[in-house]
Amino acid sequence: MNRSFTTVSQSSTSALATNKVLRNTYxxxxxxxxxxxxxxxxxxxxxxxxxxYMISVIGGMVLAMFVLPRFxxxxxxxxxxxxxxxxxxxxxxxxxxxxxxxPNGGNIITLSLGGTGVIFLGLSAYALATRKxxxxxxxxxxxxxxxxxxxxxxxxxxxIPAMSLAxxxxxxxxxxxxxxxxxxxxxxxxxxxxxxxxxxxxxxxFNIFISLLQILGIMGKDD
Amino acid sequence: MDWMQIVSALALGLFVVFLFPTAINMxxxxxxxxxxxxQSVIVPMVIIILxxxxxxxxx
Lengths: 223, 59
Hints:
heterodimer; B: mainly alpha
């Protein structure tokens, strides 16, 4: 009897902890997305050169891979998350300026933004509603992402629009898989640090938005 | 060749190198999914593909 009370108590404590991680993750994610929007607007206002995107992404990745894991369990981690997301948002400025200058650029940006929101919210709701464990996707997603990166390196030199389109499409599918995987990890207690959970989900949203911009930008040129 | 292309390729190359051990580790340690598990992923992915095609129609 006592043992069953202990089990119920432990599982409810675990569920509460999971809900807290989930709530904190979504709260921090919302704030970082807003902050990114602000820095992107600032970058557009300052009319930053195209190289800003490359420098910001490299800086953001270095911070996310080498600095954030060391501070993720302290309050400094939140500051670093804002630094990374602010930097990535700032890097988006020149790209958004370029798309905004296209004849239907405003439409492309709005559709990419809305599309990213629908994909993220839809997949998060799916993972939360089904409460399915998507941990089996881990290896497949990372290897798929590595292959896409290798293809992207090749296309930097080849500059084939069709390959660019294919890479962006595959990136959206892989990032969609990562949304299911990351959300499922939070639900099942695999990720108990909301700082790391936030940066993981932010990266998926960032990549889906960039890829949608590229796809809609390329397809929009046909008119 | 533009210096930005070379720097981008180098940065992506380094990212691949750093990600490689993680990929190997995850491949070895990830649980294997059943056919039903993969089906639960394929359905939302097909919906996303259709959604992107819909967005393309709107541009």
